[in-house]
Design brief:
The N and C termini lie far apart (41 Å). Helix 7 packs across helix 9. The chain has helices spanning 32-37, 41-44, 64-71, 94-109, 111-116, 131-142, 160-170, 181-192, 197-207, 266-276; strands at 3-9, 22-25, 51-55, 77-83, 124-129, 147-153, 224-229, 250-254. The protein has ten helices and eight strands. The protein has an eight-stranded mixed sheet, sandwiched between helices. By secondary structure, it is α/β, with parallel strands linked by helices. Strand 5 (124-129), helix 6 and strand 6 form a beta-alpha-beta unit. 35% of the residues lie in helices and 17% in strands.
Length: 279
């Protein structure tokens, strides 16, 4: 059965006093280790902030906690897991994953989350990349009291996951001349991933339901930073998302960066920390 796991890394001083906890959600066909740790985000986000890394279903990453402890032994690392139903009686969808993400955030922060929900400000900041950004968009729409600020990286304004999942169902992934460059790049991610291919294809099918439909009526209201590489073939229409967001939304383009190497950009990291550190 699939599950949703989390790895919490506490801030070095007084449980990250002075900083709002940050929840990070990785992309499709990658892992917490590949998306966040190997690209330097743990270091770039600084030692003060408590971080909660969510591990999406079918994206197993058993080494993440050990890697963090090996390099940041002075920080407390805890883990948790929520089982998810995916059966003939109930096929998992992205709505189930959103519910699990909300529950995982609350469980990982314990009394901190419960106490803060009575305030007028969000409990956590949320940073999603690619598929993680798609889920972050939807979760922020539903959880305006839980989420304070939002960062969306590599997020297309169209639903490339549904297109990819349709290709999986029809068996036309490699032979369909009408398949978009975005869907073809997603296929390349699957082909190059160390994760179980069958699990990734199942994940694409499950999490593409319901379809992603950003609009002015379905958009986060939190202050939002949208970041995309100029050479990102998956999220070339990402700037279109800004028109749906409020006046506090900011778009940043990373010159010369692709969907993959945008994550190693220092400019990306500086834009994120500046956005999160605003009042």
């Amino acid at each position: 059965m699939p599950d949703l796991r989390w790895t919490r890394v506490s801030g070095e001083h007084a449980e990250g006093a002075g900083s709002v906890p940050l929840v990070l959600v990785h992309g499709f066909a990658t892992t917490v280790t590949q998306c966040w740790l190997a690209t330097g985000w743990l270091r770039r986000l600084g030692p003060q902030r408590t971080l909660v890394f969510l591990h999406l279903p079918w994206h197993d990453d058993a080494s993440a906690a050990a890697r963090i402890r090996a390099h940041y032994g002075q920080r407390s690392v805890t883990e948790g897991v929520l089982g998810l139903e995916d059966s003939s009686d109930h096929a998992l969808t992205s709505l189930d994953v959103l519910d699990a993400m909300s529950e995982a955030i609350r469980r990982s922060l314990g009394h901190e989350a419960n106490a803060s929900l009575d305030s007028d400000h969000g409990v956590v900041d949320l940073f999603g990349y690619s598929l993680g950004a798609r889920l972050a968009w939807d979760l922020a729409c539903q959880e305006d009291r839980l989420i304070r600020r939002l960062v969306l990286g590599g997020l297309p304004a169209h639903d490339e996951l549904s297109e990819f999942a349709h290709g999986v169902r029809t068996g036309s992934l490699r032979n369909d001349p009408t398949m978009s460059p975005a869907a073809r790049e997603v296929l390349e991610f699957v082909d190059s991933s160390e994760l179980d291919r069958g699990g990734l294809l199942t994940c694409a099918g499950r999490l593409s339901i319901p379809e992603f439909g950003p609009s002015a009526e379905h958009a986060p209201t939190q202050p939002t930073l949208v970041v995309t590489g100029s050479e990102d073939n998956v999220a070339q229409d990402s700037p279109d998302l800004v028109e749906y967001l409020g006046p506090d939304a900011v778009y940043r383009e990373l010159p010369g960066r692709t969907h993959v190497n945008a994550l190693t950009s220092g400019a990306f990291a500086r834009a994120v920390t500046a956005h999160l550190d605003e009042d």
